What does this fold into?
Amino acid sequence: MTNEDVIDLYNRVKLGTVVVVLEPQPWRLAV
Amino acid sequence: MSLLQAKLGILAAALMLSGCMETTYEAANQNNFKPRDKEYLAKVSYIKTPVAEPFRRAIVDYHRKEAPGSIVVDSDNHYLYYVQDGGKAIRYGITVGEEAMAWFRHRQGRQHGPSGRLGIRRRARSPGSACRPFVPPGPDNPMGSRALYLYSGGKDTLFRIHGTNQPEYIGAFDFPRAASA
It folds into this structure.
């Protein structure tokens, strides 16, 4: 994430924000 | 052409259009940045390689179930979504490091580990990393200008959403270093 983007995101989110991490597909994990 | 063929043609066109995603590329508004951030960003020593268009910040349609205000990390496609009201999201291009992929492998292999729902418990304006040689906190540091610390069940996962001093790797599928968003 660029520094400009992470500052933008940081300014938007609050503590406690839910972060959903999608599971990678198995073909990506097998590499 | 029969009436049935005409109806099928119209239906197919409608289905194709409904599958289209509207994407509006829009750089972050730096008017909201603090003067110190503007000053630091103007003086970074790394090469500001332009990010490939598909991974630039964009406003996109969003139809998943997550509530507005949530963050969704799609590591397969190298995107992070910040969900907005009205079926929209801000989409950012990211990189996922080897350690993060190893974490996913661990989770799949053992069938346990933190769930896919994490939370931000801590934020840092100028995170540092234990890199060698030492690089002071700031945009030139490998952790970038900001870090969001991801927790699961009250425990630090040690994974972060953070900036980078290597924008050339955003969207790349083989990032050689530590977990990076």
